[in-house]
Amino acid sequence: MHRIPQMTVGGSALPTTAAFDVIDPATGEPFAQAPDCTPDQLDRAMTAAAEAFRTWRRDDDARRDCLRKAADALEGAVDTLAPLLTAEQGKPLKDAREEVGNSVAWLRYYADLDLPREIVQDDERGYAEVLHRPLGVVAAITPWNYPLILAMWKIAPALRAGNTMVLKPSPHTPLATLALGELFQQVLPPGVLNVVSGRDPLGALMTAHPVPRKISFTGSTATGRQVARSAADDIKRLTLELGGNDPAVVLDDADPQEIADLLFWGAFTNNGQLCLAVKRVYAPESLYDDLVEALAERARTVRVDTGTAEGALLGPLNNRAQFDRVSELVADALHHGATAAAGGAPLDRPGYFYAPTILSGLSDGTRIVDEEQFGPALPVIAYRDLDDAVERANSGDHGLTASVWSPDLDRAAEVATRLDAGQVAVNVHGLGVRPDLPFGGHKQSGLGVENGTWGLHGYTDLQVLTRLAKS
Ligand code: NAD
Fold this sequence. Notes:
It is a single chain. It is globular, with a radius of gyration of 23 Å. It folds into two domains: 7-242 and 445-465, Aldehyde Dehydrogenase, Chain A, domain 1; 246-434, Aldehyde Dehydrogenase, Chain A, domain 2. By secondary structure, the chain is an alpha/beta fold. Helix 2 (60-76) packs antiparallel against helix 4 (93-112) and helix 3 crosses helix 4. It is built from 15 helices and 20 strands. The strands form five sheets. The protein has a seven-stranded mixed sheet, with helices on both faces. A six-stranded mixed sheet has the order 9-8-7-10-11-19, with helices on both faces. The protein has a three-stranded antiparallel sheet with strand order 5-6-20, with no helix packed on it. Bound molecules: nicotinamide-adenine-dinucleotide.
């Protein structure tokens, strides 16, 4: 067993009074423990954050400075954080290192971001300015697929805007986030970032708690609904980053071999456990067989192994429930007449390994097409009429990201902007995930956006300052 990492409250470690097991997805066995935060300990975290807010909100330059120091500290800790992330999440070590690197980039982006004053009037009649005021304590809750970067999408803008935070990672992946809290004890004033861990009910305690003025939540749409209900009682501000069922629409002039690599990785990055992964492909009948084969060829040859194995490109699924869900959705598709052009079953080894799977011969109305699979199984659906494909791509309750694939860039862009999603892309999927562009879902994929100035303003309330001119 690894050492139990501590929760960070008020700038120091909070002694662990109860703990729960953390499972290694590559073996299915417990390999570490994490603290199980009690309601009393959560109160202490909230109080520490509220006290820190009094001074943290005042000095923007000091905040920028702290974020820069945090970025340096994080960059220097990649050799300890990345292996922890791989151990608890399952992803290959190079991907874990990249996640740490991206987290550093987000901190630096927000530290360097210039926020111009918004003066609407300054003349002989008077003065009017729109200010962005920090909210107070933010309760931040994250999922298990990208624990560090999704936490950083919240930490960097919320802190830069002058808020303080109580952060809770998923019980499946608490360790790297707890370690991040310990690391930042050296660079942030006490109470600015508090990190607690616990099972799902701790999340519900946080959203119902009277102290936070905002909840920033990333996770499933089902949990997002509960979070929104809980926030309604005292009108907490809310950002929800929820699930997706993201379509890729291939046009009839595309070359299957040309697009196969990027399309494959658009779907299988992080083993498909990515909110914005391609979750269904619509392909014209004329290209259908060639595209299925090009994708299947990549699925059959990609190296799946433990995250620490040299050359592994995909690891195991993160947890038993997700492994069971992917297994169930693929079995359901096969039962209803689909063909597995690649994969179609778990790998015969311990842990939550599943063979990268390409499914053909199925259509809308099959569960794996209509629901978010969040795993390494991609349905390819044939279409005859493009308008019909666009309508099917827009069906359902999700609208996170989408892509269109064609050498005719204008035509592809025209089709892309007919898709109902927060980000659309041409000949690539997910290119818009950058610190300086807004990311958020349409329909039931979310509420509000993260990243860029848009994301930062989500951690503020507007305040209008007016005065009459001197007479
Ligand atoms: P989840 O909803 O089960 O859990 C997310 C977090 O919420 C965890 O920390 C969990 O402990 C906590 N939680 C559980 N019940 C709660 C409650 N009642 N109140 C408050 N918090 C509660 O999601 P997951 O399985 O960890 O993550 C997978 C989902 O996240 C997928 O649907 C995926 O699409 C989505 N996701 C979305 C984005 C995005 O940016 N849109 C990014 C990553 C993942």
